[in-house]
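Good morning,

Attaching, inline, the backbone tokens for the sequence recovery test we're adding to the shared suite. The designed sequence is right after.
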């Protein structure tokens, strides 16, 4: 498909700004939880649900988004998802617990649109720049998410919760406006080329299940570690500030890997080396934290290792969606399937880790569980790397 320079520019900006909205609405909430509890009367037992609800929505909405993309066109479907995302963000501004929950549900559905459709859109619109465009949105996603976590608390202190939520909703406004302009630059036929396409039953492919397992395990580990590492480090003897700094290092250190993995994957044996690197990062980091003694410098190294591994694991999943499929339709279908299965699994992670720690009183057991799940993910990665595509021939579709 030929595009003019204007269309290419708008699509590139759109991909970046859509990426900016794919984690921010979730990562901005934890610093606001004390205010939400006090202002809206949110029970402490439900506080974690504000993170779990989007993950469950990812699981439920992803296959629906993939079907809509294949039938109505990926670009048009993403536009609809961004409208829903913005509606959810604006709804959360209303000082009501019901509006907060309803808005979070809509946000989960809207984010699913970007999660599922962006890899397919990049494969279709930029077949010769897949690595660059994938890095653009994944790095923007991680950077804005991290900034959101840091700035949400500061804005809340200076102003109030409603102004903070309204300020961050502007990111959704910009994302929707730019994507709408990008959509208008596309030929109508190109923008809606999925209308006559039947949905692809990727669940019939064994390789698709391995990719779903890999995606689920990396999501499980990321959200579990993000939730519990600060408490783990405090239990190991670090102050609350030091533990928070280590958790921030874990989150930020994934961005260089997120940026580089799509390019490394283009090299010979790049995917294989990446799978090995992800395994070593998680395993060495977790085993390092198991070593007694609260040495801050060493724990910075361990946080870096696990953070880089986590960022690389997410990025390589996007690469799997693109490289293990024949076209954008298969990419959207595989992305929707893997994220549906994977996020359902991931939603259990923080709760399961908390239950195990409470039941046993052991933080070490969580680290050993991390090692075990990492090794399972490593095996899945090796199997995925050894196979070419989810459907080896068109006859198998």
């Amino acid at each position: 498909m030929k595009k003019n320079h204007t269309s290419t520019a708008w699509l590139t900006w759109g991909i970046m700004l859509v990426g900016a909205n794919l984690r921010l609405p979730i990562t901005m909430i934890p610093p606001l939880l004390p205010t939400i509890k006090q202002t809206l009367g949110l029970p402490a037992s439900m506080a974690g649900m504000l993170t779990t609800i989007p993950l469950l929505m990812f699981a439920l909405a992803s296959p629906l988004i993939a079907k809509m993309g294949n039938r109505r066109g990926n670009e048009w479907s993403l536009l609809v998802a961004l409208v829903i995302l913005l509606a959810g963000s604006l709804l959360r501004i209303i000082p009501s617990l019901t509006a907060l929950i309803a808005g979070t549900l809509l946000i989960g559905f809207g984010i699913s649109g970007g999660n599922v459709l962006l890899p397919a859109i990049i494969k279709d619109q930029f077949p010769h720049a897949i690595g660059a465009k994938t890095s653009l949105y994944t790095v923007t996603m991680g950077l804005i998410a991290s900034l959101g976590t840091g700035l949400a608390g500061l804005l809340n202190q200076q102003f109030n919760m409603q102004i903070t939520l309204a300020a961050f909703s502007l990111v959704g406004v910009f994302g929707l406006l730019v994507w709408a302009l990008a959509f208008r630059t596309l030929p109508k036929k190109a923008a809606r080329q999925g209308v006559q396409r039947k949905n692809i039953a990727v669940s019939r492919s064994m390789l698709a299940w391995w990719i779903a397992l890999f995606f689920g395990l990396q999501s499980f580990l990321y959200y579990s570690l993000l939730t519990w590492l600060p408490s783990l480090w405090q239990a190991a003897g670090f102050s609350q500030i030091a533990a928070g700094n280590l958790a921030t290092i874990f989150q930020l250190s994934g961005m260089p890997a997120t940026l580089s993995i799509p390019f490394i994957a283009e090299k010979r044996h790049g995917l294989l080396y990446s799978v090995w690197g992800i395994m070593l990062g998680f395993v060495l980091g977790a085993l390092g934290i198991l070593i007694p003694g609260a040495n801050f410098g060493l724990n910075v190294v361990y946080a870096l290792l696990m953070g880089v591994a986590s960022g690389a694991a997410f990025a390589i999943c996007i690469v799997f969606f693109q490289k293990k499929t024949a076209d954008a339709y298969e990419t959207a279908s595989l992305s929707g399937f893997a994220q549906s299965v994977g996020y359902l699994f991931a939603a259990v992670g923080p709760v399961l880790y908390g239950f195990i720690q409470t039941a046993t009183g052991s933080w070490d057991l969580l680290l050993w569980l991390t090692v075990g799940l990492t090794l399972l993910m490593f095996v899945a990665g090796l199997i995925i790397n050894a196979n070419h595509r989810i459907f080896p021939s068109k006859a198998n579709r």
